[in-house]
Amino acid sequence: MQSIEKLDEIWQDKAIESIINFVKSADGDFDCIAELLNAVSDSDSLQKIVEFLSSTPQGKQAFQKRPLLGNIDLQKLHRLPINSLGYSFANHLLTNNLQPLQAKSVENDYDFFAAHIAETHDIWHIVTGCNTNVLGEIQLEAFYVNQLYASRFWLALIAKNLLKAVIYDIELSTTYMDAIAKGWTMAKQAKPLFGIEWNLLWETPLEDVRNSLNIILPNG
Amino acid sequence: MQSIEKLDEIWQDKAIESIINFVKSADGDFDCIAELLNAVSDSDSLQKIVEFLSSTPQGKQAFQKRPLLGNIDLQKLHRLPINSLGYSFANHLLTNNLQPLQAKSVENDYDFFAAHIAETHDIWHIVTGCNTNVLGEIQLEAFYVNQLYASRFWLALIAKNLLKAVIYDIELSTTYMDAIAKGWTMAKQAKPLFGIEWNLLWETPLEDVRNSLNIILPNG
Questions:
Q1: Contact assignment for A159 to B159 by CB distance below 8 Å
Q2: Is A10 among the domain residues?
Q3: Collapsing DSSP states into helix, strand and coil, what is residue B174?
Q4: For residue A60, what are the domain limits?
């Protein structure tokens, strides 16, 4: 039987290795995302996230009800008014040739957390106005780090992106840091996005959704 | 003879290794700082920094005149009025049991850049109001990344600190990210600090120095 210290060290080395592998790979490499997610999803930090998110009525209720988006009819959403959340979401997915994620079965708080964050990721993009290019992803990563409180995964993605700038193209540092500051500031001002039942809001104008969440888009 | 690609790869691996070593060491470990500085001080990025800093009259003049602080009489500065830059600087060094750095001989732009940044580091701490604890250092690292434009060293320090939070204590993420956003925002608003002849300003009230540089201290 190995000591806890030894197990910690093995865990730490695996986490560092998955980040370095990602630094040496292309932005958005799916295998690297999966490897990183697996390496840093320990129950300690997940428990801290669940406790933090449960401290608001919205978050607490989400863990009790575990609402998922269910099947999404993209074509139907795309026929909603152009200013609606549903239209923006459908248009985003159709334009980027993406399919809505199908949530796996959810049996505990950690499952629900993972499924909810994964299936609402594109909605967070829309609502926060974060682009799907590298800068938009970095902005959204900073937003997640703020709103999820103890997320090793999203903070690791920011660290990975800064390391890529250090190693391969230091002149990216200004735009990367700008994106971090923007996402962070926006998330601090905003109300929590975790646990929102987005499929009750498809017909709501995107601007009203943003206003109700106090999401203030940065200039430029 | 090795190909340029092979040399690049060796350089990249050395830089990554020095950052990972630092992640596994104590905050502020001097050997790690020296190893990192050595690993990421390539002439390409230094040249970009020099070009960027030379784009202002203050920076251009600094590279021409190469002004250094020279010998500093801490006791004399400590007798200046309590609100002066000189008193604050002397008091900071005396309280933290630090000695002013002695600049090495300066023979080219890169030497001057390195010597000037090193010997004015504590002055930047004073003027930006950044503490010398980890959070203050992170805030100042973000300030440097902004003001030096292409600094692998200071961006690597930020990445290193975020990695430490990912691996060892994810609950630090909020204060670390706050420090980054504060330092970054402050640096964007501020005038360039590089190239200032600080020893002409010892008697100036610190508040006047900050106002003239448009340094706005963040709340809290």
A1: yes
A2: no
A3: helix
A4: 41-212
The residues of chain B scoring below 70 in pLDDT are 1-2, 220
- In a 13 Å sphere around the CA of A37, the CA atoms on its Cβ side amount to 11
* DSSP designation for B196: -
Place of tokens 């703020």: A146
Q: Is B48 exposed, middle or buried, given 0-12, 13-18 or 19+ CB atoms closer than 10 A?
A: middle
Bridge partners of residue B84, in order along the sequence: B205
| Confidence band of A45 (pLDDT split at 50, 70, 90) | very high
- The domain tally of chain A equals 1
Q: Are B123 and B77 in contact (CB under 8 A)?
A: no
Model confidence band, residue A124 (pLDDT cutoffs 50, 70, 90): very high
CB contact under 8 A, B15 and A146: no
User: What would you report as the CA-atom Rg of chain A, rounded to the nearest whole angstrom?
Assistant: 18
The predicted-structure confidence for A133-149, as pLDDT tens digits, reads as follows 999 999 999 999 999 99
**Is A127 a domain residue?**
yes
Alpha-carbon distance of B105 to A28, in angstroms, equals 46
Complex ipTM value: 0.96
Question: Is A16 within 8 Å of chain B by CB?
Answer: yes
**pTM assigned to the model:** 0.96
Contact list, B177 vs chain A (CB under 8 Å): 142, 145-146, 180, 184
B26 in any annotated domain: no
Is residue B150 situated within a structural domain? yes
Contact of A23 with chain B, judged by CB distance below 8 Å, is answered with yes
